Each structure stands twice: as C-alpha cells, then as structure tokens.
C-alpha cells in the first residue's frame, strides 16, 4: 500500500529519495501538460468534436471514415500546444535532469513538445509526436507548416489532409493510434531505462492506456522505489511506494528542490 502525501506536506524522506537518486526515470502523461492549458486526453473534446470521445477519434478507423474531421482535430490540437508554454512541472524535471551526477531519463505518453521546450531531453515519445506527419499509405515523413488555427476556438469546419507527393496517399499525424503498435525502440528503450533505474517517478497519467501503463511494473519487479504525482488515485497508485496527491506544477518543484 502506498504512503499518500498532500503536495504541500511531502515528507523529507521522499524529498531525500529524489535528491539521492542517481539514475531516476520520469514517466509522464497528459496531466503534466494540463496546467499549461493542454486538456488531458479525457477533457480535450469541445466544439466540432464535442460529440466524439478522444479515444474514438484517435484510431485508424476514424481517420479512414472521416479523414478531414480527424486531420483537423490534430491540426487544431497542434495549434493549441503551440499557443501554450511549459509549466513549473516541466521545468522542475528539466532542472533535475541538469543536476550534476544525475542521469535522468524522461519518457512520455504525451504527443506535445513541452518537456523539450522546458529544456529536458526526452528519451521517448511512447505515443508519437503531434508535430510529426507521414503518409498513411507509404509511410514517407512529410514536412508541413504549422496549422493556422488559434488553438482555443475549435475551427468552424473540418479540412481534409494534404496528399503525399510520392503516392497521393493521405498525410496522417505522427501519433500512435489505438490499435497501433508503439514505436518498438521507444518502448524497449524506456523499459531498459526503468530496469536500470534507482527511482521511478510517474506523473500525470491515469495508468489506463497499455502497454505504456505497464512500464512502472518493471520497477516494482525489482523493488525500485516508485513515486506517483497525481491529484487523483490512478490504476497505478496501489503499486506505488509514495503517492503525492497534488498538481505536478506544485508537487514536482517541491520534490525536486535541492535540500
Ligand atoms: C496497442 C496518441 C496493440 C494519440 C494515445 C481493450 C479494447 C481495445 C484496446 C485495448 C483494450 N485493452 C487494451 C487495449 C489496447 C489500448 C488501450 O490501452 N486501451 C485502453 C483505453 C484500455 N492500447 C492501444 O491500442 C495501444 N496499442 O495496444 O497495440 C497491438 C498489438 C498487436 C498488434 C497491433 C496492435 C496504443 C495506445 C496509444 C494510443 N494513443 N495517444 C493522440 O494523442 O491523439 S493514448 C492517449 O491516451 C494519450 O497519449 C495518453 O497517453 C492516453 C491518456 O492517458 P493519460 O496520459 O494518462 O491521460 P488521461 O487523460 O488518461 O489522464 C490524465 C491524468 O492526469 C489523470 O490521472 C489526471 O488525474 C491527471 N492530472 C490531471 N491534471 C493533473 C494531473 N496530474 C498531475 N498534475 C496535474 N495538473
Ligand atoms: Zn505516400
């Protein structure tokens, strides 16, 4: 059973666990970007997409059924991410990674670039990147200018995806859809980092989506200390040593502060 702490009352021994770690791994989900203004995967549906669940749109079937709707959804989400900034949670992780003697690995389920914009090096985007594009048919990467949306009002209507210059296929977002395999190297490299870690911190994920949610269990198998940062209980809470119940933008700067 985990020890549960409010973000404002993190015991010194938990801060010490972080301060003394030499090979920490940080695994993040949509919650760490929430305070930047990027709705979590369960909150993102507004306007044009109000009647769809994110989970239903983030599939090859949805793209094949209505490429314009799905394409516009991603281009709009891209513009939203471009319009916001990393928050103190992202900055705390980047500062921790830059500390002498610490080899910190970050892997994220997020498709945004906020960790990188806060200055962190990210080992893997387990679910791809919303800023990458490739051809749905031949897989060739496509470079595209940013979407023109403002990111906050959903567009009045959907626009179709551009076509591949090589084969005429639709261009698709470079994310991993439900039912698609994760990039093998992204998963395996993260699994190897977790196996080699002396601390694993999981922040901002509900622990629902597999196989990403199984990665912390590799630490459990080895008795590696596990810390969760999330305002709510999650599917992973019961395997944690410590659960810090609070917003990552509050808890991470406290956890990472040098003693
Ligand atoms: C695969 C990219 C297999 C796209 C994403 C049953 C039926 C059907 C499928 C399955 C099934 N069981 C398992 C599956 C497989 C499925 C799956 O796991 N489904 C779930 C829903 C049960 N997984 C897959 O399909 C994966 N592929 O399994 O392939 C396969 C095998 C062989 C051959 C071929 C294929 C692919 C999964 C990847 C899907 N793509 N994203 C896009 O972004 O549009 S996942 C997407 O959802 C996000 O990327 C994110 O990772 C995930 C949502 O999870 P979270 O990040 O945790 O976000 P969430 O909103 O859930 O939670 C936010 C958390 O933050 C909450 O806990 C909240 O409390 C907290 N929070 C909020 N604010 C804060 C905070 N925390 C801290 N601070 C705050 N301020
Ligand atoms: Zn093509």
Structure keywords:
259 residues, alpha/beta, Rossmann fold, SIR2/SIRT2 'Small Domain', binds zinc ion
Structure report:
This protein folds into two domains: 1-37 and 85-127 and 181-259, Rossmann fold (3-Layer(aba) Sandwich), CATH 3.40.50.1220; 39-83 and 129-175, SIR2/SIRT2 'Small Domain' (2-Layer Sandwich), CATH 3.30.1600. Helix 6 packs parallel to helix 10 and helix 8 (184-196) runs parallel beside helix 9. The chain has helices at residues 12-19, 31-34, 54-57, 60-65, 67-83, 88-97, 114-117, 184-196, 215-222, 248-256; strands at 3-6, 24-28, 105-108, 124-125, 128-135, 171-175, 199-203, 226-229, 242-245. The strands form two sheets. Strands 1-9-8-7-2-3-4 form a seven-stranded parallel beta sheet, sandwiched between helices. A two-stranded antiparallel sheet has the order 5-6. It is built from ten helices and nine strands. The chain starts with a strand and ends with a helix. The chain is 32% helix and 16% strand. By secondary structure, the protein is α/β, with parallel strands linked by helices. Helix 9 (215-222) links the parallel strand 7 (199-203) and strand 8 (226-229). The structure holds ligand BV8 and zinc ion (ZN). Ligand BV8 is lined by residues 29-32, 34-35, 40-42, 55, 58, 109, 111, 127, 175-181, 203-206, 208-210, 229-232, 234, 247-249.
